[in-house]
Design brief:
6 helices; Pnp Oxidase, Chain A; 10 strands; binds flavin mononucleotide; alpha+beta; single chain
């Protein structure tokens, strides 16, 4: 016999106060949300946070079911957020279908900050993917060739055999080309939301949305 459901009780009692930073109403005036993401990302990297560039990417599958997974942010500009993946993966299948949109969220727990974005996605030009692929460690390049991401695998041994086959195909000293089924994807945010934890659950939230004149409109939201 057990004494009721202690785990649930334990979860419900987990809480902390958020009090590190504030977002003032004038903080965003004339500020591009892209620039703010860059600043927050820099703060996260300077703070030495583990996987500071990890974002949760949400897509919708062919049945309308939502899906989400972590990918690493590898490029950030006014054009959008770039990540790299296998084009045969589930996520890219979802993104290849209309409306070709995704959402992403990053949470930097230590800084008590969250950023959310939504927008259309497109594949990066091959030259950009080639340059990024060439910058990866050789072992990562071989893994990209060896792994048909999101496809079933018989066992661990099968994966390692496939890796060894690629290592034989491209011995040390030879250049490993970008696989045709692998590359970058850019999410171009049309909507941003910035969340800064505050005391007593009265958090600061601001949404940025592009106006018809191309300027960003900032709105404070209730937490
Ligand atoms: C910390 C972390 C970083 C990851 N980075 C990537 C990445 O940059 N690209 C990628 O395709 N998968 C990455 N993954 C694996 C994905 O979360 C996911 O398992 C994989 O892409 C297959 O997703 P899908 O079947 O929905 O396409 C990462 C996972 C973790 C936990």
């Amino acid at each position: 016999m057990t004494d009721g459901p202690p785990r649930t009780k334990h979860l419900a009692s987990q809480r902390r106060d958020y009090a590190q930073h504030v977002l003032h109403d004038d903080y965003f005036q004339n500020q591009s949300p892209h620039e703010l993401v860059r600043l927050w990302l820099n703060d996260a990297m300077e703070a030495g946070l583990t996987d500071a560039t990890a974002m949760t990417l949400a897509t919708v599958d062919e049945l309308g079911w939502p899906d989400a997974r972590i990918v690493l942010l590898k490029g950030l500009s006014e054009e959008g957020w770039d990540f790299y993946t296998n084009y045969g993966s589930a996520k890219v299948k979802h993104l290849d279908s209309p409306p070709h949109m995704a959402a992403a969220v990053i949470y930097w727990a230590t800084l008590e900050r969250q950023v959310r974005v939504r927008g259309p996605v497109q594949r990066l030009e091959r030259e950009i993917s080639e340059a990024y692929f060439a910058s990866r460690p050789r072992t990562s390049q071989l893994s990209a060739w060896a792994s048909a991401q999101s496809q079933p695998v018989e066992n661990r041994e099968q994966l390692e055999v496939q890796y060894r086959e690629q290592a034989e195909q491209y011995p040390e000293g030879t250049q490993i080309p970008l696989p045709p089924f692998w590359g970058g994807v850019r999410l171009s945010p049309l909507l941003f939301e910035f969340w800064q934890g505050r005391s007593n659950r009265l958090h600061d939230r601001f949404r940025a949305q592009k106006n018809d004149d191309g300027r960003w409109q900032w709105i404070r939201l209730a937490p």
